[in-house]
């Protein structure tokens, strides 16, 4: 099963809108399904298959990119990422207030936009201020611009009918 996480920037400003991607749609376990439908090792697995211990930064490239864009380094560098880590730790990273004025409808809208391969709204990705301000704003986790296709196989609705009861082809359904 694949998971993604979208969430808010950690601010208290009523005028700020939108949501950001925290982890792309992906398999979180030791194996993932390739575009060819074969199981393969997952380079961004979120736990060890031998020990069961969670991996702190399974999406290193996203953390590095956010550090670069937000000017984060040293004690403020992002070293956490991933679906499971974000769900377990959001709101606990910097010692600051929690997000206020949640725009839930925008979170829903951006989630659908991601699945439709539409670009996120640039203003939602804006980080500004000092290292400390930016670290608290991103809540110690990556903020990413989704550029990859979230759906591996777009024809999941069109599978052969194994029972033989329905004789329609995919071309007939289109």
Shape: globular
The side-by-side strand order for the widest beta sheet comes to 1-2
What radius of gyration results from the CA coordinates?
A: 19 Å
Estimated helix fraction: 10-25%
| β-strand number | 4
Low-confidence stretches: 168-174
What's the rounded overall pLDDT mean? 79
List keywords for this structure.
174 residues, alpha+beta, two-stranded antiparallel sheet, disordered C terminus
Topology:
Blueprint: E1 2-7, E2 20-27, E3 31-33, E4 39-41, H1 60-70, H2 83-89, H3 104-115, H4 131-138, H5 170-173
Antiparallel strand pairs: 1-2, 3-4
Descriptive notes:
By secondary structure, this protein is an alpha+beta fold. It is built from five helices and four strands. It has one domain (2-149). Helices cover 24% and strands 11% of the residues. The relative contact order is 0.21. The strands form two sheets. The protein has a two-stranded antiparallel sheet. It has a two-stranded antiparallel sheet with strand order 3-4.
């Amino acid at each position: 099963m694949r998971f993604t996480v979208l969430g808010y920037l950690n601010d208290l400003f009523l005028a700020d809108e939108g949501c950001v991607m925290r982890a792309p749609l992906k398999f979180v376990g030791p194996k993932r399904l390739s575009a060819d439908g074969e199981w393969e090792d997952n380079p961004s697995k979120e736990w060890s298959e031998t020990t069961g211990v969670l991996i702190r930064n399974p999406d290193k490239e996203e953390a590095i990119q956010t550090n670069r864009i937000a000017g984060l380094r040293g004690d403020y560098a992002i070293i956490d990422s991933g679906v499971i880590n974000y769900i377990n730790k959001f709101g606990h990273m910097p010692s600051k207030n929690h997000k206020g004025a949640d725009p839930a409808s925008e979170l829903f809208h951006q989630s659908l936009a991601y699945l439709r391969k539409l670009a996120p709204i640039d203003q939602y990705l804006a980080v500004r201020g000092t290292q400390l301000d930016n670290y608290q704003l991103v809540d110690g986790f990556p903020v990413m611009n989704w550029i990859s296709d979230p759906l591996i196989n777009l024809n999941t609705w069109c599978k052969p009918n194994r029972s033989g009861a329905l004789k329609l082809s995919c071309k007939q359904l289109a």
